[in-house]
Amino acid sequence: MVDGLHNIKGCERLIRFGAWHDAYEAIATEHVVARRYGTNTLMAWVHECALVIGLRETTYRCATEAMHAFEDEGAQVVVRPSGGAAVPLDAGVLNVALVLPAWTGSIHDDFMQLVTRIHAACARCGVHTAVGEVRGAVCPGAYDIHVDGAKIAGISQHRSATATIVHAFINVSGDAQARAQRVMRFYMCAQATNAPPIDPSMMTTMSEVCGMPLSVHEVWNAFACDQRIDVQDDAWRAEVAEHAQRIRMRYDPRSIGAVL
User: Is the pLDDT assigned to residue 186 strictly greater than 90?
Assistant: First the structure.
């Protein structure tokens, strides 16, 4: 599960994880990182095949049926506690999460702390990005990261009593337009008549922009920090598994609700 650690400049510490079999555990790890290590910590992870949806999307008429249909095809469907819309994940998508204090006084500043770090990492890979909503993109928002109007990364956040977690997906390689089509198909299956319209041509990858293949390893190595942390222990894994189950039980409409 854990695939080593790497330094990231501009942040106190980076905890780097490899591919997760359970995206709920990956999301839970963001919260465990917040509890164990506090603020100014960045974690990075990938998932081989998943669709992460927002809370609003669980209310679509046939959302549960669509979730089951996608999982029957081999894609895990999870509900994240942060905002935003559906995001498809695979081995070419890097997820990063920045842990900040529970309240810094500015939601904009919280978003921009991660945006700035992503801009810098992309630039080190030869990709020069801008920020602003991309209409027609997957999971559109004011802090979309794009190149010439084509979205590469999207950002959401979740607040708790102890921390703010700003999360981003970064399309590093693979077929970004095919990912967008997967989201469109989910909305169709869910009968989501009020879902945001998607134009697959508004999505791209870092590899496509720079005209050469990039890996998620190269991109997370383009981040840098001051400290390495080894969290490979049984207590850590048990805490992650417990919190993942609590998130699943609270947010997934296919589970019995429980209080976090």
Answer: yes
Alpha-carbon span 6 to 71, nearest angstrom: 33
Band of residue 9 on the pLDDT scale cut at 50, 70, 90: very low
Per-residue pLDDT tens over the stretch 235-249: 878 898 999 999 999
Distance CA 41, CA 43 (A): 7
Distance (Å, rounded) from C-alpha 223 to C-alpha 243? 27
Domains in the chain, please, with CATH?
Answer: 13-251 (3.30.930.10)
- Kindly give, in sequence order, each residue whose CB lies less than 8 Å from that of residue 158, ignoring residues fewer than 6 positions away: 80, 81, 82, 83, 164, 165, 167
Strand order in the sheet with 49-53: 76-79, 49-53, 87-90
Its pTM stands at 0.90
Nearest partner of 223 among 145, 123, 129, judged by Cα: 123
- The identity of residue 94, as a single letter, is L
